[in-house]
User: Fold this.
Amino acid sequence: MAVATSFYAKIIEQIFEYQVDLRQKNMSRESSESFVTEIPLRVTQKQEATILVRFGFARQLYNACLGESLCRLNLMRQSKAYQSARYIPKDEEHKKERGEVFGKARTQYAFSEYALHAYAKKVGEKLGWMGSSVQQTVASRAFGTVSRYAFGKGGKPRFKNVGQFDSVEGKQNTVISWNGDAVVWGGLVLPAIFPKEGRKGNDVIQHGLNAKLKYVRLVRRKLNGRNRFYVQLVCEGLPFQKPKTKIGIGTVGVDLGPSTIAIVAPASGQAELQQFCRELDFEQKKIWKLQRKQDRQRRVGNPQNYNEDKTVRKGAKTWNKSGKQLETETKLAEMCRKQAEYRKSLHGQLVNHIFSMGNDVKLEKLSYVAFQKMFGKSVGARAPGMFVSLLKRKAVSAGVLVTEFSTRTTLLSQVCICGEVKKKPLSQRWHTCDCGAVAQRDLFSAFLALCVEGNKLNADLAKEKWQSGMDACLRAALSNLQPAIGRSFPASFGLKRSQSGSPVNFCENKTGKSRNVVASASKGESSEKPVLNRTPRL
Assistant:
């Protein structure tokens, strides 16, 4: 322990002056908005081989920095200073003292980003040439991952295997630089591929080229099993906004679920209930088929790794991959890539649609980790958490306010406009109350989100808006629903008679269009659109 302490003390002496100078330089810097302009690159086979070697060096440096950071974190946690800081109260009175003791523990074992830069420099000299700024960004990336793990904001970091490190970046347009037409990196000149109409014909690319450049990032992607390289120009300012994209005025309430989304905008008189990324369902079935095929090929090629009951054997195992299995994995990876790009496009379209309805968006702050545990397949395909992240990010550049409020203080799924609180199971998709308020559960939660002020529901405001015509607006949203061709509505909509608490007769009497909405399932009743029975699989 004494040897380790003296070793880190020497590092601290070397870095202390560097930290002070860097902090003084950063005192005058102000953080600014940034956006990314991505352009494909034309790369020869020889250049590709050189880039892959440098990506391999960056991967090894990342793993070395990651292991060193974890080692320093474990030593710091075992120190007496760190253990004593844990028992200091977390109140405001002892906040400063607690931070100083934790800071001494971090300084003692050089657990900081700048200390890791010195370690990365030594390791980088042994691995190969990458450039000092690239080494520092790789070290910062590794330390950021360990730092999130140390503060309980992420799981334990994993080391990168061969082929899993797909991006490198520099600092201030150095080492990896952009000269206006190509990327220059240590003797490599990678020309950009601009659209057919040229740089001036593409408004998005032209906007990025005209903005002030911060730094350059080189990205690798695999398309059909082949490497494709792109340059990401991180520019200062706001991204390009298309003229056709307009921002509405008013408050918008959003209720997001694992497979549904409800939107209510009283200013524009709109209310919608739709399946979240419904277009991805067909592609997801293809992915599941390839996953089952891959599992069969894995079992056939590795019978020694399975027990008699077809479960995986415990202990160390060696997995063999046949040529057919590698071909299936390539198809599966390409299909997942296409689905991710398609999902990203659908998320962007939905965000623009919400912004066109109003400039003040309110929604619940949900735990998407809990969503993954309860609705794993749906969340994996639709990614609601990624949608919320995109909503927040685009709101900054569009000048839209996005407010997330706690579910514990508002209880939108349980409360009514009259103030009564009654817990409902997930199977009950309709809200019914003795005061006469009846509405689809998701639409009603989106409506109540409009009336949240300071993490609390304003019941008087909700009652006033409900009586001003929101009841009819929510019913109109149900009457405008249209299922996909050959498919019925999902059970989460609550439009089937089998759903408990579904007041189907209420919708029929009020809207007059419920025959296009409600799928009849009970005996002795008929509907204009009978549910199609699927042919059993033989």
Notes: The first helix runs from residue 2 to 26. The chain has a mean pLDDT of 82.
